[in-house]
Amino acid sequence: MIGAIAGDIIGSVYEHNSIKTKDFPLFNPYSRFTGDSVLTVAVAYSILSSTSYKDAIKDIGRRYPDAGYGGTFIKWLLAEDSGPYNSWGNGSAMRVTPVGFAFNNEDEVLKQARLTAEITHNHPEGIKGAEATALAVYLARTGSNKDEIRTQIIGRFKYNLDRTVEEIRKVYSFDISCRGTVPEAIISFLDSDSYEDAIRNAVSLGGDSDTLACITGGIAEAHYGEVPHEIYNKVEETLPSELMFIIKEFYNRFMGM
Fold first, then answer.
1. pLDDT digits over 36-85, tens only?
2. Which of 4, 30, 49, 233 could link 97 by a cystine bridge, Cβ 3.0 to 4.6 Å?
3. Spatial contact of 98 and 44, defined as CB atoms under 8 Å apart
4. Phi, psi dihedrals of residue 31, rounded to the nearest 5°
5. Which positions ≥6 away from 198 have C-beta within 8 Å?
6. CA torsion, points 164, 165, 169, 174, in degrees to nearest 10?
7. In order of start, what are the domains of the chain with their CATH numbers?
8. pLDDT tens string 3-24
9. Cα dihedral 188/147/158/191 (nearest 10)
10. Comparing C-alpha atoms, which of 146, 164, 177, 153 is closest to residue 205?
């Protein structure tokens, strides 16, 4: 889960300042956590506490109203009576990483991913993006190799993963949809040779960089193992202590740390 949050923080400064290169500093004084991190932690809190996904996201999300949420989501977050709003945006995919780490079979991972999504993103593409991301994390952490992950995701979700980062980078632009984010994030992982390389791939596409790197980072951590210590330490310096406490509790329960 730190892998997803680190991706968000690293990508935060490039979200509206797109770059098309892998040669950039991972952190700078403007690096910050965004709503992607807050809501990822909220999903982890829900799983830890057996609180509903909706209640956990509202509780944690409201504590950080300036985290950079989308306009429709912030209205949902602050409303007393909130229903789903048929979103196909990538917000369902960026918060789902904990599901792939916490549950122990494919059917349950897909079910829980759907539940995290449909409180807001009940459009079929919103649900699909969450399911594909969570399943990729699950497959990576349970030992599937990259070819197996690629085959499973293509087979279940019909995403085009037969592209390279270099090919995508040439034509890609800012895209907040699940359809235009999740496949590219997964390819950023598939084309990598380390956790850091995966994050650099995602940011270098020049799109919604914090969310791309957040999705990529969760899968990359599941595959490569621990996030490098220097990156972990920067996350710990950047996040509020209450969010780090939830993360550590999640790791202790579900990730053997």
1. 999 999 999 999 999 999 999 999 999 999 999 999 999 999 998 899 99
2. 4
3. yes
4. -65, 135
5. 188, 189, 192, 216, 217, 219, 220, 224
6. 110
7. 2-254 (1.10.4080.10)
8. 999 999 999 999 888 899 999 9
9. 10
10. 164
